[in-house]
Design a protein that fits this description.
Length: 136
């Protein structure tokens, strides 16, 4: 699994670098890469249908997944206070990653981008008040 993740990450970085030779639009590439994430819930749901002995409708499964945000689910208040800031950070991070690919070597960009996990951990600790300290 680790080899697959590493291979896909290195391949996507190289393809993004090659894309900039013909198509110089980092924000469009950011939008395109982010919009593909919308496909992951249906893929997850299909896997859940194949694996789970209990059958749920897509609406029931979506509500169950939204309970992650609290008892009321994904409300507008929760969306604008917790989800939207992370969405903006996601877009900004990917945009700056692609901008860096335009300017410096792909190996250096990948090494710098690997540090984002520490910042995600710190932000989840501060904003979401997640007290998981297993990384220490």
């Amino acid at each position: 699994m680790v080899m697959c993740v590493c291979s896909s990450w290195a391949g996507s970085t190289q393809l993004a670098k090659l894309t900039f030779k013909q198509f110089d639009a980092p924000f469009t590439l950011t939008w395109f890469a982010t919009s593909w994430n919308c496909l992951f819930f249906p893929v997850y749901y299909i896997g859940h249908l194949c694996k789970s002995p209990e059958r749920q409708t897509p609406r029931q499964r979506l509500r169950e997944c939204c309970r992650f945000f609290g008892d009321e689910g994904l409300t507008p208040k929760v969306f604008f206070t917790k989800v939207a800031p992370f969405g903006l950070l996601w877009i900004l991070t990917n945009y700056l990653y692609l901008q860096a690919l335009r300017k410096i070597n792909t190996t250096d960009v990948s090494a710098l981008f690997c540090c984002n996990k520490a910042f995600v951990f710190l932000l989840s600790w501060i904003v979401l008040r997640d007290r998981f300290m297993g990384v220490r």
